[in-house]
Amino acid sequence: MRKVVVLSVLSIAGIGLSFGTHAEEQPGFYVAASVGEATNESGEFKGSDTAFKVGGGYTFNRYFGIEVAYVDAGTQDDTIGPIALENDSSGVIANAVLRLPLGETFALFGKLGYAFYDSETTSRLGNLSERERDSDEDFAYGAGVELAVWGGLRLRAEYEAVDVSAGDFQIVSAGVTYKF
Predict the structure, then answer these.
(1) How many domains does the chain have?
(2) d(Cα 116, Cα 110) in Å, to the nearest integer?
(3) What is each CA distance from 89 to 68, 83, 172, in whole angstroms?
(4) Residue 78 contacts by C-beta under 8 Å, 6 or more apart in sequence?
(5) pLDDT of residue 16
(6) How do residues 5-52 score in pLDDT, each as one tens digit?
(7) 92: domain range?
(8) I need a surface site. Which of 56, 61, 140, 154 has the fewest CB within 10 A?
(9) Torsions phi, psi of 61, nearest 5?
(10) What is the CATH number of the domain that holds 68?
């Protein structure tokens, strides 16, 4: 999955750099959806799973916008010694989005914001299991590339991270946005 996302980023970057000057972009709303890989590392635990995001945003001009997305990070699992661990996590990330247009259809972007999330960790040792639920909020950031392909349709590849106090949480994804 990670190779597919990296190849998507490189393809979008290569195509986007071949275009000319950027036309003035109008303010407006957009919807977004993407799929990728979420990784979660905390102490000895290192797990990953397929993740998806759905959301939307508003662009004030070609350089600045805001975005909110629901993220389902799947179930990351790992085995530490005889203990099997599973972590289900999901939440909402709200970001300010800064864009750097590099031509008529290509842009780099960065995100700064905040994540509000729930996680449920299940520990299993043989027939015994224990479940722990947690809700928290932390600083989030990310970066990516975007390619306008037709009308309001854009392809997007991005990296996002949540500054979780107990470890690292990251998502690498590819998806689409549609601006109204």
Answers:
(1) 1
(2) 19
(3) 17, 19, 16
(4) 44, 45, 46, 47, 84, 85
(5) 42
(6) 444 444 444 444 444 334 456 899 999 999 999 999 888 889 999 999
(7) 2-179
(8) 61
(9) -160, -170
(10) 2.40.160.20
Please give the structure tokens belonging to residue 51.
Answer: 């993740």
Residue corresponding to tokens 């990330």: 93
- Three-state SS for 12? helix
Pick the more confident residue, 7 or 56: 56
State the DSSP string of 18-85: T--PPPPPPPEEEEEEEEEEEEEEETTEEEEEEEEEEEEEEESSSSEEEEEEEEEEEEEEEEETTEEE
User: In Å, how far are 5, 7, 22, 45 from 1, measured between CA atoms?
Assistant: 6, 10, 32, 20
Model pLDDT for residues 94-115, shown as the tens digit of each residue: 999 999 999 889 999 999 999 9
In the three-class reduction of DSSP (H, G, I as helix; E, B as strand; rest coil), residue 162 is classed as: strand
pLDDT tens figures, 127-177 = 999 999 988 999 999 999 999 999 899 999 999 999 887 788 999 999 999
DSSP conformation class of 127? T
- In angstroms, the CA 70 to CA 94 distance is 9
Scanning the structure block, which residue is given the tokens 């005889």? 82
